[in-house]
Design a protein that fits this description.
Length: 226
């Protein structure tokens, strides 16, 4: 696909533009976040993911994982294993994660960050590998915990989204490139979709992307492999 400026778009960028342009995208966002619901309808529990207890990146707790963060992850239908959760809250793992979180910026969107912030070996990558490789946490859960702590910088990426958009060698780097290409057109599309749906600005562009893709692919009834 060639953009309006004549530049070639990445496969992930192409796929996301198509998915986010679907007629149902705005309605899916409104449904998920509980905006103008019909009587008797309820928002998805995941609509509380970023807002529970003031958010995971609020001043004072942005660099440590709290019990509220662990509950927030559960709103996305996963749970940090109890033994790992206790080590985070009361043990050595919590201190390790806090040290790494201090090196991950909390006040920048992925589109504006340098690629090395989400590259292999970065502090964010180290957190992910620490949880997955040393503590046996499922990759989806580790990613959602990181997204809770850095919602503007790190995306939710689960099996449904992976089924919808594919498996690039590094989803973080592929998404970073897709957001920046063509003058950051994809990032602007996400912000415009957020505004049109009436989703609060406290919901990041990355989360808008995740929800729109997840809702649309889930509704199509795809059997997504683990």
């Amino acid at each position: 696909m060639i953009s309006s400026t004549g530049t070639s778009l990445s496969p992930l960028g192409q796929r996301l533009r198509v998915l986010l342009s679907a007629e149902r995208a705005m309605g899916d966002l409104r449904c998920y976040f509980g905006i103008a619901l019909l009587p008797g309808a309820v928002a998805f529990t995941g609509s509380r993911f970023e807002h529970l207890a003031g958010g995971g990146d609020r001043p004072g707790i942005a660099d440590r994982i709290t019990a509220e963060d662990l509950v927030a992850v559960q709103t996305l239908s996963v749970a940090v294993p109890a033994s790992v959760a206790l080590d985070i809250l009361e043990g050595r793992l919590g201190a390790q994660l806090s040290g790494l979180l201090q090196a991950i910026p909390w006040d920048i969107d992925m589109v504006d960050a340098d690629a090395d912030v989400v590259a292999e070996g970065s502090p964010a990558d180290q957190v992910w590998h620490l949880l997955c490789d040393q503590y046996g946490v499922d990759w989806v859960i580790a990613g959602k915990l990181l997204a809770r702590k850095r919602p503007r910088l790190l995306p939710v990426y689960d099996r449904v989204v992976r089924c919808a958009v594919g498996r690039p060698p590094s989803f973080w780097l592929a998404l970073h490139a897709a957001l920046r290409e063509d003058g950051a057109a994809l990032h602007r599309q996400l912000l415009e979709l957020r505004q049109a749906a009436g989703v609060p600005e406290t919901v990041s562009a990355l989360r808008v992307c995740d929800v729109a893709v997840w809702m649309g692919h889930r509704a199509e009834g795809h059997a997504c492999p683990r």
